[in-house]
């Protein structure tokens, strides 16, 4: 997907499909963010979460591999008078944090860009940047339906997406399922735990959306 090109329409499309504000509040309450904390968001996209987090903590590092998404997010932060976010070009595998251990790391709908082996490396990198007891929130397209029934499950999900967000978005979900690296819930759980996290809460929604609220051991 060309994220540089879709930045301006991204928020509008996502709002038809997700409860963005509800998601943000759910994550912020799990993270127990304090005013002196610093937080990293990986794959920030248009920065909706980073902007909300920046109002509650000392510094947010918002990284993405798409300069177009970052520029869009940066302009939004300037428009809202928020100055404690560092927008940086960087990815799951290439970003290394040099400003001291982080209190929290968040990534939403982004890790599926990596095949499973590289998800494991990304999670080890994430663990190395967090302080002990630091929190990780990971949300992504993760498959928790019965693979024996995959055709019916995918058909049901795509037609629900069509109803909620229209044919363009349903088409992009079809392409996601065919070409991207969403994995199964039990694999994702193993990858997270093997990187040194305890999963404190896990939710699977509609067989396609996984949320993992974790603490570094
Ligand atoms: C579907 S968007 C999600 C944006 C935002 N986190 C959200 O919840 O709406 C995926 C984002 O991940 C970014 N991305 C893709 N591969 C990445 C990687 N290897 N490292 C970091 N970000 C990546 C894309 O540029 C894009 O902005």
UniProtKB/TrEMBL annotation:
<dbReference type="InterPro" id="IPR029063">
    <property type="entry name" value="SAM-dependent_MTases_sf"/>
</dbReference>
<protein>
    <recommendedName>
        <fullName>Methyltransferase domain-containing protein</fullName>
    </recommendedName>
</protein>
<keyword id="KW-0808">Transferase</keyword>
<keyword id="KW-0489">Methyltransferase</keyword>
<feature type="domain" description="Methyltransferase">
    <location>
        <begin position="40"/>
        <end position="134"/>
    </location>
</feature>
<dbReference type="GO" id="GO:0032259">
    <property type="term" value="P:methylation"/>
</dbReference>
<dbReference type="Pfam" id="PF13649">
    <property type="entry name" value="Methyltransf_25"/>
</dbReference>
<dbReference type="GO" id="GO:0008168">
    <property type="term" value="F:methyltransferase activity"/>
</dbReference>
<dbReference type="InterPro" id="IPR041698">
    <property type="entry name" value="Methyltransf_25"/>
</dbReference>
